[in-house]
């Protein structure tokens, strides 16, 4: 039985186990970075769209939270 190696960022966020100790069957889950797409959905069930041609957003200088927009390309969330 071959042990599955953990990535350092998985250890960092507390992932300790995978669902199986068996060897995988092979295959490619994500061949290109756009093969895995996440759609953000609001509580009101509106699907947010990410467009690269969107206008610049102006944020107020005051507020309770820091707000930013990120478009990730070939990066894990923890790398961003």
UniProtKB/TrEMBL annotation:
InterPro entries: PsdUridine_synth_cat_dom_sf (IPR020103), PsdUridine_synth_TruD (IPR001656), TruD_catalytic (IPR042214). Signal peptide: none annotated. Gene3D superfamilies: TruD, catalytic domain (3.30.2350.20). Pfam families: TruD (PF01142). GO terms for molecular function: pseudouridine synthase activity; RNA binding. One of its GO terms (biological process) is pseudouridine synthesis. This is Uncharacterized protein. It comes from marine sediment metagenome.
């Amino acid at each position: 039985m071959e042990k599955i190696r953990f990535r350092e960022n998985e250890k960092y966020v507390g992932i300790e186990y995978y669902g199986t100790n068996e060897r995988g069957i092979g295959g490619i889950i994500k061949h290109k970075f756009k093969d895995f797409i996440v759609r953000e959905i609001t509580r009101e069930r509106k699907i947010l769209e990410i467009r690269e041609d969107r206008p610049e957003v102006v944020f107020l200088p005051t507020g309770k939270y820091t707000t930013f927009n990120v478009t990730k390309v070939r990066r894990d969330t923890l790398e961003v």
